[in-house]
Write a structure and sequence with these properties.
This is Tetratricopeptide repeat protein. This protein is an all-alpha fold. It has eleven helices and no strands.
Length: 263
């Protein structure tokens, strides 16, 4: 009887020890995870604020503290995008390194929507737009209600639009067209900008986004309207919304500055 009681007590003791260790471990991991996400967000803000070198360094700090290979590859691609924009020759070397990681990650992440966002970023960097389209199709197949996916889609199509020659027309390669007149209907740049705006608007309809995130999206739509879609009135409308939602954020301050120049 005593042996049975001692065995029961031993089992309970082991269970309590395991629970305590797990609880402590989780408590330790949670702040670390928050710190990593904070580093990533800071890097993205620096990138969007035009501080390329600082953003690259911040992404390095993020990768140094994160063991998730998918997230590390995502950060590497963000660096690659910055380097390409800065015309740093080594961006191609980093792109090849990221490509290998994307290929390896496919085996274990095929049904992970986050993987397809990473794939889309790589495809955008190397100008494989058909693969960008296919990657987002996969991402939304595995996770239809995916506001973060639509934000990334908006960002990438904005990136593609900004890097498209304004004179490029969908009619320019058609038979009988040597110099096609570029209009909204056949402008490749305009159509990519329109795709970006529609993606941002889908993300805004999601009730889980906080005001800071909504403000950042309205700021980006404002930029699209002013520089790609050429609609100053809509740009001003979105920048006003940004200030209303998050006046003291980077996006709120930049929107206020743009409003002062365009009103």
């Amino acid at each position: 009887m005593n042996i049975r009681r001692n065995c029961i007590l031993l089992v309970w003791f082991v269970a309590i020890v395991i629970f305590s260790v797990t609880t402590i471990s989780n408590a330790e991991e949670s702040p670390a995870h928050v710190a990593q996400e904070d580093l990533y967000e800071k890097a993205m803000v620096l990138k969007e604020d035009g501080k390329g070198d600082e953003a690259i360094n911040m992404f390095n700090k993020f990768m140094d503290t994160n063991k998730d290979e998918l997230k590390r590859t995502d950060a590497m691609l963000e660096q690659c995008m910055i380097m390409k924009g800065m015309k740093t020759p080594t961006w191609k070397t980093k792109a090849r390194e990221a490509q290998q990681k994307v290929k390896i990650l496919y085996r274990t992440n095929y049904m992970n929507p986050e993987y397809w966002l990473v794939y889309a970023k790589f495809a955008a960097i190397v100008n494989e737009e058909r693969d960008v389209y296919g990657a987002f199709k996969k991402a939304f197949y595995y996770k239809p209600d995916y506001p973060e996916g639509y934000i990334v889609k908006g960002d990438l199509y904005s990136y593609l639009a900004k890097n498209t020659d304004p004179s490029e027309s969908t009619a320019s390669t058609a038979i009988g067209y040597e110099e096609a007149h570029v209009s909204k209907e056949n402008s490749v740049r305009y159509q990519k900008g329109k795709e970006a705006k529609e993606s941002y608007e889908i993300a805004l309809r999601n009730s889980t986004l906080d005001n800071d995130k909504k403000a950042s999206i309205h700021y980006k739509i404002g930029e699209l309207e002013m520089n790609i879609l050429l609609n100053k009135e809509e740009a001003i409308k979105n920048w006003k919304k940004t200030v209303e939602l998050s006046r003291d954020s980077m996006y709120g301050k930049k929107s206020a500055e743009l409003l002062s120049k365009n009103l």
